[in-house]
């Protein structure tokens, strides 16, 4: 992955490139309606990643909801006897912004592997997450965590169920002091409280971080998880996506939703994660389905916003020409600059207000060229 030059991709090209990536690995497209009955989401509200559901009444009087989530629909339509189903989607979801209270339409591309087991199944999804990020930017990070490892540490130090919710929030905020205080307040030994607090700063390159994590193992299940994470990383080395991976146990998902590996993807320039995912067997159980499952969603809206805010130029080259030049001359010079390697060229007689250009070329300031040779040369 890292041995090829990265070319910037446009917002229009990215979904097509992601579709090509997923289809190359045998995933097929899933399409859903823009709305479901409100009861469907109300009954499974604990598994929604957003509290805000936009509702309306249809012509028959039923209360309907604009879809706030795609994964739930995929799980709903999965047959209980399905052994393996690899799906991807490109959909808009509709939510209410918790801060502003305004309606939001969010463009997403996602991937779901129903039947994905620990081992190769997880490694494949993580690889595709890393490759998806690589399409979005030169500098990317995929933070890997594990809900089971954190739960195992809570269990090994004797943290009570009532104290775990506060500990989850403290860990999400990388607040080691709050973790320590929560453990001491709950009656844990100081050494165990310090062990828990160290989890907040346990983040970094995978090989180094996993060595530190293994020192915290206090149960057989935690040791098993470490073996699985080492195996996961070794596969990423083979498929050449390991350079993007970091181990970070503060990368946690919702306890009702995720139950194993979790990950968050970042691209330079975007202030928040543009990719989130993990193992969500709990959601399948909610619908009475026996399969394991994992996947991820990419917030295209977040990535596009970051690209727009961080794009320093509207055009690579602004070509300003005087009225003495014929249209042929301007067209020839435009094509010449493009063949020279300019990313984009915009020709104008005067500079438009607010336009940002990497370079400006004034045709009136150069010697008049004779462009009208019979062979097209100047």
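Q: What amino acid sequence fits the structure above?
A:
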């Amino acid at each position: 992955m890292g041995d090829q030059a990265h070319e910037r991709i446009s917002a229009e090209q990215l979904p097509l490139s992601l579709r090509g990536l997923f289809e190359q690995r045998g995933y097929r497209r899933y399409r859903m309606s823009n709305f479901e009955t409100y009861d469907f989401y109300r009954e499974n509200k604990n598994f929604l990643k957003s509290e805000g559901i936009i509702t309306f009444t249809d012509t028959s009087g039923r209360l309907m909801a604009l879809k706030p989530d795609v994964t739930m629909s995929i799980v709903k339509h999965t047959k209980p006897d399905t052994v393996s189903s690899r799906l991807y989607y490109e959909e808009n979801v509709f939510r209410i912004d918790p801060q502003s209270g305004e309606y939001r339409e969010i463009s997403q591309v996602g991937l779901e592997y129903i039947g994905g087991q620990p081992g190769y199944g997880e490694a494949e999804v993580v690889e595709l997450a890393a490759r998806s990020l690589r399409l979005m930017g030169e500098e990317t990070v995929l933070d890997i965590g594990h809900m089971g490892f954190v739960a195992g540490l809570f269990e090994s130090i004797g943290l009570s169920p009532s104290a775990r919710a506060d500990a989850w929030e403290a860990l999400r905020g990388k607040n080691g002091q709050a973790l320590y205080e929560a453990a001491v307040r709950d009656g844990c030994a100081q050494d165990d409280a310090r062990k828990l607090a160290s989890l907040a700063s346990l983040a970094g390159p995978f090989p180094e971080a996993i060595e530190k994590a293994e020192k915290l193992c206090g149960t057989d299940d935690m040791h098993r998880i470490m073996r699985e994470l080492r195996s996961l990383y070794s596969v990423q080395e083979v498929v050449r996506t390991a350079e993007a991976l970091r181990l970070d146990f503060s990368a946690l998902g919702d306890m009702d939703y995720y139950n194993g590996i979790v990950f968050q993807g970042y691209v330079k320039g975007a202030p928040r994660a543009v990719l989130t995912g993990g193992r969500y067997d709990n959601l399948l159980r909610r619908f009475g389905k026996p399969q394991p499952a994992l996947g991820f969603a990419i917030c295209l809206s977040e990535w596009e916003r970051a690209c727009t805010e961080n794009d320093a130029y509207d055009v690579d080259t602004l070509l300003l020409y005087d009225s003495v030049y014929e249209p042929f001359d301007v067209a020839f010079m435009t094509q010449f600059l493009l063949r020279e390697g300019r990313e984009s060229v915009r020709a104008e007689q005067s500079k438009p207000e607010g336009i940002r250009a990497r370079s400006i070329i004034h045709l009136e300031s150069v010697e008049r060229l004779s462009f009208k040779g019979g062979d097209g040369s100047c």
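Q: And what stands out in the fold?
A: Residues 165 and 328 are 70 Å apart (CA to CA).
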